[in-house]
Amino acid sequence: MNRVDPAFARVDPKRAGFYVWRIENLQVVPIAKEFYGEFFRGDSYIVLSIKDVKGLDSHVHFWLGNDTSQDEAGVAAYKSVELDDLLGGSPVEHREVEGHESRRFLGYFPQGIKIKAGGVKSGFHHVDKGVFQPRLIHVKGRRNPRFSECSSISWEEMNKGDCFILDLGHLIFPWLGSQCNVTEKMKTLEHCRKLRDERGGKSTIVFVEDGQEDKMDNDPLQMFEKHLPLKDRSALKNAAEGGQDEASERQMAANIKLFSCREEDGTLRIQEVKPGPLSRKDLLTDPQQRWSEDSFIIDNHPSGAWLWIGRKASHKEKKEAMRNAVGFLKKKGYPSDTKVTRVVEGAEPADFKCLFRDWPQPPPPGRVYTRSRIAKTVQTKFDAATLHSNASLAAETQMVDDGSGKVEIWRVENFQLVPLENIHYGEFYGGDCYVILYTYNIHGRDQYIIYYWLGSKSTQDEQGTAALMTVKMDDEYGGAPVQVRVVQYKEPPHFMSMFGGKMVIFEGGKAGWASKGEKDSGPGDKYMLQVRGTSALNCKAVQVPLRASSLNSNDVFVIFTKTAVYSWAGKGCTGDEREMAKNIAARSPRQLTNVFEGQEKPDFWNVLGGKEEYASGKMLQEEGSHPPRLFQLSNATGNIDVEEIHDFVQADLIEDDIMILDAWECVYIWQGKGSNKIEREQSQRCAIEYLKTDPSGRDPDTPIYSIKQGLEPPSFTGFFGVWDRDLWSKGMTFEELKKQIGEGNLPIAQVKENVTNGTQDFNEVTKFSLQELQVLVEELPSGVDPSAREIHLREDEFQRVFNMSYQAFNKLPQWKQKQLKKTNKLF
């Protein structure tokens, strides 16, 4: 058996998880969760995503910064293959290049990725905690923007089509290009607020509109001009020079080509087989068309290239597949950033299958590579002991333990925290906000997490109070807790695990009842819950309207009445989901009645007020041969640009856009209220063009339905799981967000001296003893950056250890600082 890299030893191929590693000195090193989404352009990274989507769906990405070395890039590629082997050969493997990341990769980081200057070779592990270096951050992207540090602070780096952040430490200038999109504006402001929060609220944010720079007050204008003189503003580029946000153009089926990769006499040969449209049979070299002994390259330039590995391909073909594909791109003269994705026979993702007109056919007989399936029983017990003994594993898996620690919950009422009775733990109301203190023990020492949960229909006052009370509670515990902001429907795994598979989200809330003069009456005598989840670690139930139209063939629903409890199982649900429904039904002492779709009796329909149309049909009931796909359409480039949204939910339907839901048997055009007139008028033509340009050779006469935001039928909403009719009415506008962020600012005069210094307060971070900091990385106290341990020393101990003050140490050259840290075992 091949030796597994120690960095991968904790990956469980049978459990969902998300992991990030960086290549440091040609070794694979795990990245702590708090730094997920941050990439240094001088480095290479490996990212693994294993998702539970009615079976485990695995993707391995190796990301190459523009300044990474060939050695580091080679290690990332080689170790990705090793990780792939560990997972049984089934993951899809992606090559990602800085600035040209795939939509799937960007989708892992909803707040956008942060690309920073430097890397391991240059000594940049993370931003130096002692001295703040001013920087200019470029914000670009329509859905999941990239946050990239510019090589210099100058107008030449900037353009009118994007947003930029001039970060001076205690003063932050978000500069908004006159032609940037709404997403870039919102994400820019959110990122600025996050930077301010990370600095304890001691930074001030000054908004700068393109062309309105001279309208700032005198003090911030002087600081802004020190780095970006207005006299040099003529170097600012127009939007076109800044590049398009979306550059993935769909190609006509005839442009796609198939190439075979075959080993002959020890030499790998690549030969063109045929142009598109393609059939799955083109890949099967066995005379009976059961499997393939070869590998193939599907050239879909400029959208990228796919590398398909046959089940019986030689070991050399498998091992050197990605290197050969990159060589193929070079020979073709394609750009070095062209996307390359590797898949194996029997584990092809939906976006690969859609390149073929007749995919899929029945799977080949015999043993093939398959994605691991979760057994149709409750999963095995979570191994919490392993997490307690390995802090880095807890960071990687996003689970500090199995959720069995001490839980205390408060609800926000009238700007105060009111304790929740224990019997109501796990019950949340969408109109309220909650603060949860979680206490667990590691090596005899208590650790804390403070979650603040924000209901989707809670007020801004309630959300603000929850955040403030979280900070106050953090202070009461000496800054030791980890703070986690949790938004309804986006609960992380550990949050759900605290309630043992019995988390429930009800409609309504305390504030709403009080405004009507009503008491806290709970969900009432009759209500229905939609159950989502496959284990006690990821299960939650959400209240939906008690009527037949709320049902969905994909899920399980539990209906409570005064006299009975029903569990309704759709044809597309799993055994795990039915088991979790039993846990939820245990809320009532009444006997559970199981009802299966298609076998309902009249008394069941009477409880729901009679039969109605609901989200049903072949695509919803079965693991269809063609899973639904969601696309965002744009005509920004003058051509039809299509961006696929993976693992989509309702929130991925953007109000400013036209979206296409491809259900294979039909296509839906969803028109957002903010989409422009031209896009709406051309949406029908766009859908037809989409069908014509589908490489799988679709029937152009496939039915096309046009629907408007807010008027969606159940045949459409059923593809999105839980559907909230009020989702979009609660969104905050750009101006409202801008106002809210501005209200949290300190006066300019209060921060002016700190900005001039450019230094951070040495006393702002939590302090520890020298012994607590001279330990292995995984044993460091929570919140300590391994590359800046020294700033966590108490001032007197810092003087004793380094024989100088922190300020004097800060003025030393980087090499001298590192030498002193190594001598004192703080590196």
Automatic annotation (TrEMBL):
Pfam families noted in UniProt: Gelsolin, VHP
The signal peptide here is none
Q: Which UniProt keywords apply?
A: Actin capping, Actin-binding, Repeat
**Coiled-coil segments:** none
Q: Name one GO cellular component term.
A: actin cytoskeleton
| BP GO terms, sorted | actin filament severing; actin polymerization or depolymerization; barbed-end actin filament capping
An annotated Gene Ontology molecular function: actin filament binding
Domain HP residues, every copy = 762-827
InterPro entries membership: ADF-H/Gelsolin-like_dom_sf, Gelsolin-like_dom, Villin/Gelsolin, Villin_headpiece, Villin_headpiece_dom_sf
Highest taxon listed in the record's lineage: Eukaryota
UniProt similarity note:
Belongs to the villin/gelsolin family.
Q: Identify this protein by name.
A: HP domain-containing protein
The species this protein belongs to is Elysia crispata
